[in-house]
Design brief:
The complex is a heterodimer of chains A (about 240) and B (about 270). Chain A has about 240 residues and is of the alpha+beta class. Helix content of chain A is about 20%, strand content about 40%. Chain A has a twelve-stranded mixed sheet. In chain A, a hairpin with a 2-residue loop joins strand 2 and strand 3 (about 65-70). Classes of the chains: A alpha+beta (about 240), B mainly alpha (about 270).
Chain lengths: ~240, ~270
């Protein structure tokens, strides 16, 4: 009798766990979602330039194949608009600086987008069984090691990988789920990104409208340091 | 038989005084009947007077007719043109005021784009998004100072937004929180700068966005706005302001001049801030 009730309990628990994981997976695949991350600077020194980004917020908006990454900080407000599986490969991503007098935008074609994220391609990923509960979701640990030896620790929700978001954030493309916390350390100093809110409310298409007026298009020339003003070049790169 | 006759004779003369209450009641009734009869009589007399009429003397009627003047008939139609003219005047004044208000805004906002274009063409990078000392009242601060006195009736300027801290709102120029928070006028410093507390402060940008100004940054801002008794910034405040200006220039140099650097990337951000 006792073994039967234990079996029934285990069965019900596994069904509930599977239901939860299925529900979580379905939500990130089928609905629009927004994840907000709080950015905290880990450092003993409190009078450095790091404080200008301490307390900043990074938001991720996903609607179908459209992704918007937004950084709001004391120092600047910047967005990346990414369109997954777009036919127009000349502008898969648009980087927009939205703050200050010198606003601008860069349009990146497929090859430039890969160049922009080249440092993540050769990252070594190590998945761990360690877990962390974040926003009522069990997150598994992963450690990403870069060619320069630096490491980034991430906690992701298993089984929730979203292809559009993975393409928009190639840093986490190799992880089997959406990341809710990640931390990058340089010695004793570090930057911690922690999801503070997840929303599945429908997103208006206007969230993904790239601003045009007042945002001159700049030429994306990686590796070049501009002395003086950034040159304007209306000629788009062809991929 | 004679005995019976005697008794009957005695009974004949026998009388019993009725009780006082009875006589009183009878007396009251009689009096009431008398009063009623009297009232009735007076009522009838008054009723007769009601139907009585007295014909006025003829000279009275003649006097009345002579003094009476015909009433003045006021027609509403004669006021229609006046009302229409008044409405036209009011409408014209409203249109003029509205147009005048739009022109004022156009003049005021025109200064910012022209200043912007000028700075892009000729100014050095160090002057862009600069942290300007509030004592000197540069163009932006002057614009803000003059703007606070004028009431803009048209749409708000698209280059300014608002931020809120503990219900207190602040103007944000060009979406640049750093510039806006380092260019308060001394007489308009927000409470988180003037208070003793150095706790982190939450800044609400709109219904969904908010950031936090860290304790360290709050402390830096407080030092930057320190004043001497004469109202001028202290030496320490001037040093802090210069330091913030260098930070701003560094940020522009690192992320705007190196286009492959991404402030959202923790590796790039760490390279910059550490």
């Amino acid at each position: 009798m006792r073994s039967a009730s234990l079996f029934i309990f285990c069965f019900l628990f596994s069904v509930a766990a599977k239901a939860q994981s299925t529900a979580g997976e379905n939500e990130f695949h089928q609905k629009d979602f927004t994840i907000t991350y709080d950015i905290n600077i880990i450092s003993n020194k409190k009078k450095t330039i790091a404080e200008t980004y301490n307390g900043a917020v990074k938001s991720v908006y996903v609607k179908g194949n459209s992704v918007k990454l937004r950084l709001v900080s004391l120092m600047r407000i910047q967005n990346i608009y990414y369109t997954h599986l777009t036919k127009d490969t000349s502008a898969v991503a648009v980087i927009v600086k939205e703050s200050g007098k010198s606003k601008y935008k860069f349009k990146l074609g497929k090859s430039n987008w890969e160049l922009f994220n080249a440092k993540y391609v050769s990252a070594e990923i190590k998945l761990s069984e360690d877990s962390l509960l974040l926003l009522n979701r069990v997150c598994k640990k992963a450690v990403l090691t870069y060619p320069n030896g630096s490491k980034l620790t991430a906690y992701y929700v298993p089984g929730t990988k979203n292809e559009a978001l993975a393409a928009a954030e190639p840093m986490f493309a190799g992880l089997p789920g959406i990341v809710l916390q990640y931390e990058y350390h340089q010695g004793k100093k570090g930057i911690l990104y922690t999801a503070s809110n997840i929303s599945f409310e429908p997103l208006a298409a206007s969230y993904f409208t790239i601003p045009s007026k007042g945002y001159p298009t700049k030429k994306f020339t990686p590796g070049k340091t501009f002395k003086g003003n950034i040159p304007e070049d209306e000629e788009e790169e062809e991929d | 038989m004679s005995y019976l006759h005697t008794i009957l004779k005695k009974l004949q003369d026998h009388s019993i005084t009725p009780p006082a209450e009875v006589t009183d009641a009878i007396y009251r009734n009689i009096q009431e009947e008398k009063a009623e009869a009297g009232l009735k009589k007076e009522f009838e007399q008054v009723s007769e007077l009601k139907n009585r009429s007295v014909t006025p003397p003829a000279f009275l009627l003649e006097n009345i007719l002579r003094e009476a003047k015909p009433a003045k008939v006021v027609s509403f139609r004669q006021y229609i043109p006046r009302i229409a003219a008044a409405l036209l005047v009011i409408a014209a004044v409203a249109v003029i005021i509205r147009l005048t208000g739009k022109k004022d805004v156009a003049k005021e906002t025109a200064t910012i784009p022209s200043t912007e274009n000028k700075s892009l063409a000729t100014d050095s990078p160090a002057k862009k998004d600069s942290v300007i000392a509030p004592v000197v009242l540069p163009k932006h601060s002057t614009y803000l100072a003059s703007n606070t006195k004028k009431k803009i009736r048209s749409k708000p300027d698209s280059k300014t937004g608002k931020a809120w801290i503990d219900g207190q709102d602040f103007v944000v120029h060009n979406n640049d929180l750093f510039f806006s928070f380092t260019n308060f006028k001394y007489n308009e410093l927000p409470s988180f700068i003037t208070s003793e507390s150095t706790e982190a402060v939450k800044v609400n940008l709109d219904h969904s966005s908010s950031i936090t100004i860290s304790e360290g940054m709050v402390g830096i801002m407080k030092r930057m706005y320190q004043q001497k008794k004469n109202g001028k910034p202290t030496a320490r405040a001037r040093r802090e302001r210069k330091k913030l200006q260098r930070w701003k220039d560094s940020d522009v140099k690192f992320f705007d001049k190196h286009v492959e650097k991404n402030p959202m990337d923790p590796l790039d951000l760490a390279e910059f801030i550490f």
